[in-house]
Design brief:
The complex is a heterodimer of chains A (735) and B (230). Chain A has 735 residues and is an alpha+beta fold. In chain A, 35% of the residues lie in helices and 23% in strands. The radius of gyration of chain A is 26 Å and the shape is globular. Chain B is an alpha/beta fold. Chain B has one domain (3-229): 3-Layer(aba) Sandwich (Rossmann fold). Chain B has 5 helices and 11 strands; from the N terminus they run βαββαβαββββαβββα. The longest helix of chain B has 12 residues, at 218-229. Chain B is globular. In chain B, 53% of the residues are buried. Classes of the chains: A alpha+beta (735), B alpha/beta (230). Chains A and B meet through helix 8 and helix 10 of A and helix 1 and strand 6 of B.
């Protein structure tokens, strides 16, 4: 009865079906097929990516939990642990931007609190097509409203992130959501059933027909019929989730439960089979007991629904009543729907009949792993010795144009729709190099950053991702934080295309190399393939989230100039090369390589110099040079200054002035220091073999940049600030 | 001075308010559960910010029916001190303890940002530590903070000096741009006639420690604390 058409609908290959039959020794029924289809989907099984993800370094002396659980866990001392993870919600956000993004936030929050941590920060990496197209604007507007609606209502601040614009995201927006929680180290919970005989409780919202096959949908390319998939997108209820959060943390604090797993992708199917498989037990549930909000749902629908705000709990039978009391206090269902069993089977009853009878290892552990065909991407050609691009006529105007490019422009229009201050920990507002949160009752602060540069990874997947990780760490160094752990979200096209697989291989290998060099363990992450619409793939987009710790929050450094008359010093050196820059993109509409090269040894030395200088109290402000180059970095240092202090810069490098101002040579940080402390900083840098150049002074009301006696830029800070500030709101003006 | 912070389902500034009152202002503070009929002998009730009951209907419209609100109403009637912050202010409006209503922000977006508010009436139990005309910096975070009242109500609250705070620019001037949510008469905070119930949209608990960007919110908490000490 299961034919090719049904297999196609379930996105399963014939060979996969044959394997299922041999694993279970018979033909599966339709519900069982649905279960395999969801759990063996790319989204849930990582079948194309597993081989490569294994190369990432995941161990470290502070790692409590690496990949494989709902989130990674890092020990930060004083009995506290950080729990964090990133997830993509790209496909749903394209189909239904508001609910797609909102439920992305809901899902990642559950991943964190299911482990016993209270979520204290969210960040998002968002990528959209150019805003001149109405469709992209409406996707962006919906995504931001969705994030805002869910995160704000939950009372978890959205403290930062990144928003990036490029044509490749026009019908393929990327929505990656990061969440970080804080837990007591000895009170962490896992997706475990305990022993047989334990009770299985369903808690949270009722089950409806929404989101059926969401995971499978996220594992295929999109075509013209995509809009019809709207019913596959779940609908979020942040209020329910807030109650669920409080109730779950309460039963955990009271020690009432054994294990817990959220029902995210593949819903009840995933929660039951994963909990059992990880515990070496079986699980038996009765679907008639599952709270339902629609009439007449069949086993297939109940097992595969992705209704939001639900969890599965394992508890000792004598504690069930106490668990239910807590959930009743929060007005939530907590229904015993089954038992933990011996024998490793998932058994599902429906109206007195067996609807599912499968070995959990077949569902979870025996999914095929693919070594897909790949084609190595072409190596980027070295740049011609003479740049073919004409010099700008007016450098000031060019700077204004870059500041107004949405990727560089101020994102306040976006982040002021997010509550970024609730929980009263946010020390730095979004927009700074990294987000900084104090940890109450300690002297420590946390810093975190989400970033990626898909233009670099498009032009050079391996080098690009190394540069991207370096930049995230540099951002942390600028506020004074040392990295403790990383998570990543890898967004790619269809892995069945060899060129996409080639990109993936290069990116994961590059990321492994960079994480090893920076000595940062990767504690988890997410892979999103099939980001293709109508045959066009997104650029390979590795979004990296790094979390760091600042020992003494009072030493936190911010990017803005503080006082007039202070020295502006460049750590690192200006270098030749204009490939992969935002400048080429904005001025000449060219995505051309190679992107700037990175010397890991130098990069680490620059970061170490910055960190040491901050710890020694030598630095007044620090800002890293990235998209838009030195000129944009200087302008932003003026914008972030409370009094909009200007700067007078005098450059002497033997470089073309366009490259000098707008090139994106790596491993550079601009700092401002008191004149009396200059010498100390320069000496410190020398010990790390980091070149330093005094490039000017803070002061005045203008951004003034001279080069070898020639005036290149002279702009009032206010005018530049306005261009930067007004660019994004300008696209959304209501007439 | 004993403070009680009410917890509705969906409250999310309850922890923050509790933290500031207990650890920063140093007062005995307790949580009050919305389903109880017990004010635990507190001297002041604070209704915190958040999304009570999800605010899927009008903000604060359901919370006013919580069991504890009966006690809060009676407490206010007897002259007890009640402060509503953000969603708490919306609940006070729904309860009728303060006049007027909140509309969507004028730009139809949620707004989270620092604003400046000016002390209009420094002779209240919530503001006597401040000076008339003093400009305070603190954040707002709301979707529905666009204050509205019928013309005759507006006239009455102005005559009685019930407007405690107004949105202004950093120099203390009234203008369209500084009135970010579009409130009538730039109203940011109101006190009742008797002077024992105040509601405000900005979050003083988010501006009570310098490391968070402002400690101006302490003007309010210190005023409330000292009122009792006298």
């Amino acid at each position: 009865m299961i034919d090719k058409k049904i297999l196609d609908q379930h996105n399963l290959r014939q060979a996969e079906y044959d394997l299922i039959v041999s694993l279970i020794g018979r033909e599966p029924n339709l519900t069982e097929l649905g279960i395999f289809s969801a759990m063996w989907s790319e989204h849930c099984s990582y079948k194309s990516s597993k081989l490569y993800l294994q190369k990432l370094p995941t161990k470290g002396k502070h790692v409590i939990q690496g990949p494989g659980e709902n989130a990674g866990i890092i020990d930060i001392g004083a009995g506290l642990a950080l729990v964090f993870k990133i997830e993509s919600h790209n496909h749903p956000s394209f189909i239904e931007p508001f609910q797609g993004a909102a439920t992305g936030v809901g899902g990642i929050l559950r991943d964190i609190f299911t482990m016993g941590a209270r979520p204290i920060a969210l960040m998002d990496s968002l990528r959209f097509g150019p805003l001149r197209l109405a469709k992209n604007k409406s996707i962006m507007d919906g995504v931001i409203a969705g994030i805002s609606s869910y995160g704000n209502s939950m009372g978890v601040p959205t403290v930062g992130g990144e928003v990036y614009f490029h044509e490749c995201y026009s019908l393929n927006p990327l929505v990656n959501v990061f969440c970080l929680g804080i837990a007591e180290k000895d009170k962490i919970f896992y997706a475990r059933t305990g022993g047989s005989g334990n009770s299985v409780l369903y808690v949270g919202s009722k089950t409806g027909r929404d989101g059926i096959h969401g995971a499978t949908m996220a594992s295929a390319e999109f075509g013209k019929e995509t809009e019809q998939k709207r019913p596959n997108v779940q609908v979020g209820d942040p209020f329910k989730e807030k109650l669920l959060l409080e109730a779950c943390l309460e039963v955990m604090a009271k020690g009432l439960i054994v294990g817990i797993q959220d029902m995210g992708a593949a819903g009840l199917t995933c929660a039951t089979s994963e909990m059992a498989a990880k515990s070496g037990t079986g699980i038996e549930i009765d679907l008639d007991l599952v709270p339902q909000r629609e009439e007449g749902m069949n086993p297939y629908e109940i097992m595969l629904s992705e209704s939001q705000e639900r969890m599965l709990i394992a508890a000792e039978p004598e504690r069930v009543k106490s668990v239910q009391d807590v959930f009743a206090k929060w007005d939530l269902d907590a229904v015993e729907i089954g038992k933990v069993t011996e024998g490793g089977k998932l058994k599902v009853w429906f109206k007195g009949d067996i609807a599912v009878d499968l070995p959990v290892t077949a569902i979870i552990d025996l999914c095929p792993v693919y070594r897909r065909e790949y084609r190595e991407p072409a190596r980027p050609k070295p740049e011609a010795s003479t740049s073919p691009y004409p010099l700008p006529k007016d450098y000031g105007k060019t700077l204004l144009g870059l500041l107004a490019s949405p990727t560089i422009a101020d994102k306040e229009w976006i982040y002021r729709q997010y509550d970024h201050q609730v929980l009263t920990n946010t020390m730095l507002l979004p927009g700074a190099d990294a987000s900084v949160l104090r940890i109450k009752h300690t002297k420590k602060a946390l810093a975190m950053k989400l970033d990626g540069n898909s233009l670099y990874t498009h032009l050079d997947p391996r080098g690009g991702v190394i540069a991207a990780l370096a930049e995230v760490c540099r951002n942390l160094a600028c506020v004074g934080a040392r990295p403790v752990g990383a998570t990543n979200c890898l967004n790619f096209g269809n892995p069945e295309k060899p060129e996409i697989m080639g990109q993936f291989k290069e990116v994961t290998e590059g990321l492994a190399e960079a994480c090893a060099a920076f000595n940062i363990p990767v504690t988890g992450g997410n892979v999103s393939f099939y980001n293709d619409t109508e045959g066009i793939s997104v650029y390979p987009t590795a979004v990296l989230g790094v979390v760091g710790v600042i020992k003494d929050y009072r030493k936190t450094v911010t990017p803005g100039f503080k006082k007039e008359g202070q020295a502006i010093i460049l750590l690192g050196e200006n270098k030749d090369g204009i490939g992969g820059t935002e400048y080429l993109k904005v001025l000449f509409n060219e995505d051309k390589g190679p992107p700037p090269a990175l010397d890991l040894k130098r990069e680490i030395a620059v970061q170490e110099t910055c960190l040491k200088a901050i710890e020694a109290g030598l630095i007044q402000s620090a800002h890293d040079i990235s998209e838009g180059g030195l000129a944009v970095c200087l302008a932003e240092s003026c914008f972030f200054s409370q009094d909009k202090i200007g700067c007078r810069i005098d450059l002497k490098d033997d470089l073309r002035p366009d490259i000098l101002l707008f090139g994106e040579a790596q491993s550079r940080i601009v700092v401002s220091v008191q004149v009396s402390k200059m010498k100390k900083l320069v000496e410190l840098a020398k010990t790390k073999e980091v070149p330093t150049t005094v490039i000017g002074r803070t002061g005045g009301k203008n951004i003034q940049v001279g080069w070898r006696g020639k005036k290149l830029i002279s702009l009032p800070v206010r005018q530049a600030f306005k261009a930067w500030k007004d660019a994004i709101p300008g696209f959304f003006k209501i007439d | 001075m004993k403070f009680g912070v009410v917890v509705f389902p969906g409250s999310n500034c309850d922890f923050d308010t509790f933290y500031v009152l207990k650890d920063v202002v140093g007062q005995p503070t307790t949580y009050l559960w919305h389903k109880d009929h017990d004010l635990k002998g507190v001297d002041c009730v604070v209704l915190p910010g958040g999304f009570s009951y999800g605010d899927y209907l009008r903000s604060g419209a359901i919370a006013r029916f919580s069991p504890l609100m009966q006690e809060v109403g009676e407490f206010a009637e007897k002259g007890g001190l009640v402060l509503g912050i953000c969603n708490g202010f919306q609940v006070l409006l729904e309860l009728g303890l303060l006049p007027g209503a909140m509309l969507r922000n004028k730009n139809l977006k949620f707004l989270c940002q620092f604003v400046h508010i000016r002390v209009e009436n420094e002779k209240t139990r919530f503001t006597h530590k401040g000076k008339k005309g003093q400009v305070l910096k603190m954040p707002i975070a709301h979707f529905d903070g666009n204050y509205y009242a019928a013309p005759e109500v507006l006239k009455e609250i102005e005559t009685n000096k019930e407007v405690v705070f107004r949105y202004v620019d950093e120099k203390g001037r009234l203008n369209e741009a500084a009135n970010v949510n579009g409130s009538l008469n730039c109203v940011a905070g109101l006190v009742n006639k008797r002077g024992n119930v105040m509601g405000m949209m900005p979050h003083p608990e988010r501006a009570s420690e310098a490391l968070l960007g402002s400690a101006d919110g302490l003007v309010i908490f210190n005023s409330m604390k000292e009122m009792h000490d006298r």
